[in-house]
Design brief:
- This protein has two domains: 53 residues, no CATH class; 79 residues, Rossmann fold (3-Layer(aba) Sandwich).
- Helices cover 34% and strands 26% of the residues.
- It has five helices and seven strands, in the order αββαβαβαβαββ.
- It has a three-stranded parallel beta sheet, with no helix packed on it. Strands 1-2 form a two-stranded antiparallel ribbon. It has a two-stranded antiparallel sheet with strand order 6-7.
- Strand 1 and strand 2 form a beta hairpin.
- The longest helix is centred in the first third of the chain and has 17 residues.
- It is globular and about 50 Å long.
- Pfam families: NYN (PF01936).
């Protein structure tokens, strides 16, 4: 996405739309992109690819620190990444009753997360579509419209 200005613009628009539609309910914590040189297996040409970094670490830190501080009593982790398990364990170690559940995106699952939580379930593509922002809406004096590429 780093070398795709259109994708960056769509992502920024989406974040703005989320914050406008749900003020004071979400906090956006951005990761970063790291350039990585790769080699094409077929032609051996080298090219630059970009890898998203720190998002899972930022999520895990928020789960753990906010849980330890008592800032939530229930959480829904939408991930199938077992790297979230240490954060869940840390939050649960606070000694307060916490309800933490995992919702696994299509094609994702983690037995480790499943074993730590009283509830977990898969999310299918239909539910993801139903949870998306509307194609067009007004919020905070602005009109937001889903980019054509996302429809």
């Amino acid at each position: 996405m780093l070398n795709d200005p259109d994708a960056q613009s769509r992502q920024a628009h989406y974040i703005d739309a989320l914050q406008a539609k749900y003020p004071n309910l979400i906090q956006v914590i951005l990761g970063r992109y790291q350039a990585k040189t790769k080699t094409c297996f077929k032609c051996q040409n080298m090219y630059t690819s970009y890898e998203e970094k720190e998002t899972d670490v930022n999520m895990a830190l928020s789960i753990a620190t906010d849980g330890l501080k008592g800032l939530y009593d229930s959480a829904l982790i939408i991930s199938g990444d077992s790297d979230m398990a240490p954060a869940v364990k840390a939050a649960q170690s606070a000694g307060r009753p916490l309800f933490i559940a995992a919702a696994f995106p299509p094609g994702r699952n983690s037995q480790e997360l499943r074993s730590l939580m009283p509830a977990s379930f898969p999310i299918n593509a239909y539910k993801i579509r139903k949870a998306q922002l509307p194609n067009k809406f007004d919020a905070q004096g602005k009109t937001f419209q889903r980019p054509a590429k996302w429809r």
